[in-house]
Structure formats: structure tokens, C-alpha cells
Amino acid sequence: MTTDDSFPWPWQHDFPPFYTLQPNADTRRKQEEAWCTLILSYCKHYKTHQLDVAEISAGPLFNNKSIQRKLATEHIVGILNVLSKKGHVEWLDTNKKSCIIMWRTPEEWGKLIYDWAKSFGLMNTVCTLYELTNGEDSAGQEFHGIENWLLVRALKTLQSSGKAELISLGEANDGVKFF
């Protein structure tokens, strides 16, 4: 993952105890929550959807060279497991070496897309998936440019709640109808 200096690091990132698992259960819960927030913000900022644990552990997210602190790999996996329970992470292997990360859950993306479709008067209208992610009408929306696999997952949450129906119009022209 390439990074730049534009990410706004929270104060905890420069706080040495942040990198050590805290023994007090309440403090540890707050620490895990802060790490979860940081990871999701970081991935959102860099529009990252896949993490390799070894690679990310060496990068600036978990390795703050300015204070010479690094979060242990087992703690990184533990925090990613917390995010998994919240629906933000899916492990790609049983050894938990790489994962898909979603800074918004598919349900959250679905709600965002549905609210946009309602506001644009797209009820009972078929839109191609390409139009949703690359069209002029969605420019400036958070979901503009979203990866297709995540878009389909988001739309499936709408389909399961009766708010949309996925339509296959041929491989390159799949669409969705909003209700």
C-alpha cells in the first residue's frame, strides 16, 4: 500500500502505550475501539479494501518509527478479528494472513446508495452497475468508484430487504432496480 503524508493521525498514534495490549479490560476495550476506528479511517483515506497482515504491520499504520513503537502481529490479528465481528473484515485464509476490509459494511453502503437513489428519483428505474459507480449522477458520492464486488454485496442487502432487485442484463451490463 502506498501512502502519503496527508492522513490525519489521531493523538493515540504517538502515544507509546497504544502499542502495548492493556491489561485492564475497560482500557483494552477502549484501546481496541481506537485501533478499529484508526484502521477503518486509514483504509478509507487510502481507499484500500485488502490487507496483507505482514505488509501492513511493517507500514506506518502499526509501526510508528518516530516513537519507536510497533503493534505486535498477534494484536493486529486480534483487532482485525474485532472488526470481523462488526462486519468490517472478512478473512481470505484460515491462517489470517490477509483479509478484505470494508470501512463501511455492505448494509451501510446499501443504505447510502438507496438514499441517493431516492433523492435522485430513481425508484422503479433500472440503473446499470456501471452508471451507479461511474456515472455523472453519482459523481461526488462516496460510493462513486466503489469496487464492483462491494457494490454487489451492498445491493444484495437492499434486495434482501425488498428495496431493490439485481438484474442480469449480460455480464458487462448488470443492473439494479430500486423500489
Automatic annotation (TrEMBL):
PANTHER family: VACUOLAR PROTEIN SORTING-ASSOCIATED PROTEIN VPS25 (PTHR13149), VACUOLAR PROTEIN-SORTING-ASSOCIATED PROTEIN 25 (PTHR13149:SF0)
Record key words, sorted: Cytoplasm, Protein transport, Transport
Record keyword Zinc present: no
Gene3D superfamilies: Winged helix' DNA-binding domain. Chain C. Domain 1 (1.10.10.570), Winged helix-like DNA-binding domain superfamily/Winged helix DNA-binding domain (1.10.10.10)
Record's protein name: Vacuolar protein-sorting-associated protein 25
Compartment annotation: Cytoplasm
MF GO annotations: protein homodimerization activity; structural molecule activity
Protein family membership: Belongs to the VPS25 family.
Pfam family, one: ESCRT-II
